[in-house]
Amino acid sequence: MQFISDREPLTEALSNASRALSSRGSITGLRWTVAAGLLEIEGRESDLSIRSTVPVDGSDTHFTTPASLAVDLMKSLPGERVEVVVEDATVSFRSGRAEVSLNLLNEFDVPPLGIEDQAAVTVPSVELASGISQVAIAASRDDTRDLIYSGMLFASSPEGLRLVATDGIRLALRDIAGINMLNDTDTGEVVIPTRAVRELERILSGSAADQLLSVRIGAREAVFSVGSTTLATRLIDEPFRDYRRLVDVSYSRVMLADRSQLVSALRTLRRMAKEARNSSMLRMTITGTACELSVKIPQIGQVHEVIDVNFSDEEFAISFDPDLLADGIDGVESDVVRFEFLESNRAASITNSDSRSFVYLLMPIVQK
């Protein structure tokens, strides 16, 4: 059995599907299924699956190949077209004057993810991708932590959709107006694993600006489809932490700073901070019209930079992890960044200067 495909979309489909497989998981193969002129490549684990389709010319077939090796070999083939030939227990890829063969794997026995009877809603893919990128940075990457720290909240809000994530040190929130994708759920909110959210963001970032995302959310699973790729994930079956009391705070100190000045200063300060053997901190000393940013690494050196600000209080000092601070500023979309402070040992708020559609809360580093 054989079929022919353009190499570039086939490589992209392989790459997409392979990202569903964790490096620590027991599944190492991708399932290829050809039916009616369409090839579907799927990577599937118990809590995440990614499927991509590619038009092909040839006979129907199905088989399983090693994931990472198939991706790397397909990328390295020289021609624009690939002929795929399945014979007994091997598959061959022929392109240009090159030919590679792989031994096939046994079919993986993992129950499929998906929702058959849930109605789909469509949302703008670019807007959702932008919101996810602003919030996902605050979710924990440590799979051994409490599940609630390794997931992102998707919740209905009066404006549309609210995204929230936290790792216990910081919290990011984004309200996206006009996106309504949870109205049919029982609670109006779901928690999606961070790994699935990051893969969804990557898929959406590669889609066309005017492309719509199809969303189906059930009681235990969610399915997202855009273009030729579908991602299905299990939901986290635990309520998200009560974040509202952290966000709804009245702050006594407000600082407004030019975003471009901050980004430029942080570039230098973060470079010095990388020289620290363990953790480092960035100190902010603020007066009415100036903010001194400083990083000092013992036996290495120090950096000081002053930027213009507008501050509502007397002199105030607070310290942060420089990388976590930069993550919050990266999420701000306005030209001016609004900082709000309570005390030097309480979380600070970073937002746009003209709205709270994006909120980033960051705990300071307290010197002992």
Automatic annotation (TrEMBL):
InterPro entries: DNA_clamp_sf, DNA_polIII_beta, DNA_polIII_beta_C, DNA_polIII_beta_cen, DNA_polIII_beta_N. Its EC number is 2.7.7.7. Its main location: cytoplasm. GO terms for biological process: DNA strand elongation involved in DNA replication. Residues 1-111 form the DNA polymerase III beta sliding clamp N-terminal domain. One of its GO terms (molecular function) is 3'-5' exonuclease activity. Residues 123-240 form the DNA polymerase III beta sliding clamp central domain. Gene3D superfamilies: 3.70.10.10, DNA Polymerase III, subunit A, domain 2. PANTHER family: BETA SLIDING CLAMP, DNA POLYMERASE III SUBUNIT BETA. Belongs to the beta sliding clamp family. This is DNA polymerase III subunit beta. It comes from Ferrimicrobium acidiphilum DSM 19497.
